[in-house]
Amino acid sequence: MAPKRIPRDRAYFLQRSNVDQGTGCWIWARGTYTWASGSKYGTSSLPGQPSRSAHSVSYISLIGPIPEGCEIDHTCTNTLCVNPSHLEAVPPGENSRRSWERGNGNNRNTEKSKCPKCGGPYTEKTRTQRGKVRTYRVCVPCDRARNAANARARYAADLDAARAKQRARRSTKKES
Question: 140-145: which pairs have CB atoms within 8 A and are 24 or more residues apart?
Fold first, then answer.
């Protein structure tokens, strides 16, 4: 017996969502996944296709195919929303720009002013790498400890290499 094909229509999405009367968002109430950034998205699928984001399935089913080179932006900023009137196909750069504009694109680590390991303050460092100037933040106490540990490891490795050379020279002198 073939699996039952459920049409992806307005009723499909409304049955699987909680409608927020204040914002008009259809908040997906079924399967979700969380990105590394902490953003949560719903999952669904089109008949005969693998699972994908619920907002993409909503857009494809209720508006039409996603234009090539575009991704779906939530104009309401709620990543669990599947309301087609809150979804817009935009180029990835525009989606990122809007995200930053709304304050959602900030790296959560840029807001930290103290190191989580030792509590030391962060300071900016600049270095040139392959002709490009790179600026990054470091914790001074942790950076010093890391540099000291690396220096000790290099010294120990150099010392071991020098001793091995000496042993090799001594053994060749004894043989001759």
Answer: 141/115, 142/115, 142/117, 142/118
